């Protein structure tokens, strides 16, 4: 064992010792940085310890549940179309956008963007490997996308049958989400992933359900109002457009989804997990 390896081990031991010393704060007082980080690492490791089938089913459930946001988006768009300008409709839609997120997060289903930074922290803390992270991400993404695509099929069928929205509404939303240049979608998705990672951190900092609902609503409304690209909701939006409109091709869907997934992952892993963790580490040195 060389000196450099020994130095890294000593540094890791100091970090772990500092995290272990982060005791729960008193009721009514805000949680410390170390307390939140410790909780996030523990929560992340618990996800790693789950069986693959459990992770897949939980992420599939999240993909299905997030579809209720899409149901409200389409219904509201159709309801307001012709009554107000279209650009106003897309802004108003941001106020119903959070509903699916509230269902998913409070229901403890595994949503890729909300879990990105959470699952990265155990890797940064040397408790899990990069390979295990990529494997876990793959399972979560697969479940989220399959669930979302299934909901897209349901929405495309049930909307016109109930008369709450039509194919034109589905098409308009899909085009609105996907018509940007690749570079724009990438940067937008990074910002969205950043916000979702921050959402996970803020939820860990909160103490009660009402606070968590308020945080989820605030963050996801900002995301939607700014038009940032979320890979899992966007999956439902663009896939629904692909199966119902000639304006969205298979390549449009694949390009959008791959770029938004990469952007969301970078936003959560780098701008939340890495920065929050390194801020703690530098305080230990």
Automatic annotation (TrEMBL):
GO cellular component: plasma membrane
GO MF annotations, alphabetized: formate transmembrane transporter activity
Bilayer topology: Multi-pass membrane protein
Name of one Pfam family that matches: Form_Nir_trans
Annotated InterPro entries: Aquaporin-like, For/NO2_transpt
Localization, UniProt: Membrane
Residues passing through the membrane, by range: 55-80, 92-112, 133-158, 178-202, 214-233, 253-275
Keyword match Membrane: yes
Protein name stated in the entry: Formate/nitrite transporter family protein
Keywords on record: Membrane, Transmembrane, Transmembrane helix
Primary localization: membrane
């Amino acid at each position: 064992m060389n000196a450099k390896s020994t130095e890294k081990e000593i540094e890791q031991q100091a970090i772990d010792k500092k995290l272990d010393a982060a005791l729960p704060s008193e009721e009514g007082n805000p949680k410390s940085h170390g307390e939140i980080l410790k909780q996030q690492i523990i929560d992340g490791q618990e996800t790693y310890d789950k069986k693959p089938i459990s992770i897949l089913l939980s992420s599939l459930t999240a993909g299905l549940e997030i579809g209720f946001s899409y149901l409200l988006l389409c219904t509201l768009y159709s309801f307001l179309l012709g009554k107000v300008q279209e650009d106003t409709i897309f802004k108003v839609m941001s106020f119903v956008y959070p509903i699916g997120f509230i269902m998913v997060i409070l229901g403890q289903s595994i949503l890729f963007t909300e879990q990105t930074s959470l699952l990265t922290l155990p890797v940064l803390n040397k408790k899990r490997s990069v390979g295990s992270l990529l494997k876990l991400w793959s399972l979560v993404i697969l479940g989220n996308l399959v669930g979302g695509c299934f909901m897209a099929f349901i929405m495309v069928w049930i909307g016109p049958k109930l008369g709450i929205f039509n194919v034109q509404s589905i098409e308009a939303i899909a085009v609105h989400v996907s018509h940007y240049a690749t570079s724009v979608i990438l940067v937008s998705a990074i910002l969205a992933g950043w916000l979702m990672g921050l959402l996970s951190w803020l939820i860990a900092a909160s103490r009660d359900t009402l606070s968590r609902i308020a945080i989820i609503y605030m963050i996801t409304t900002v995301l939607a109002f700014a038009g940032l690209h979320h890979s899992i909701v966007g999956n439902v939006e663009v896939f629904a457009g692909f199966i119902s409109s000639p304006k969205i091709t298979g390549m449009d869907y694949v390009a959008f989804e791959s770029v938004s997934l990469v952007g969301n992952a970078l936003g959560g892993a780098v701008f939340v997990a890495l920065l929050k963790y390194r801020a703690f580490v530098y305080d230990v040195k």
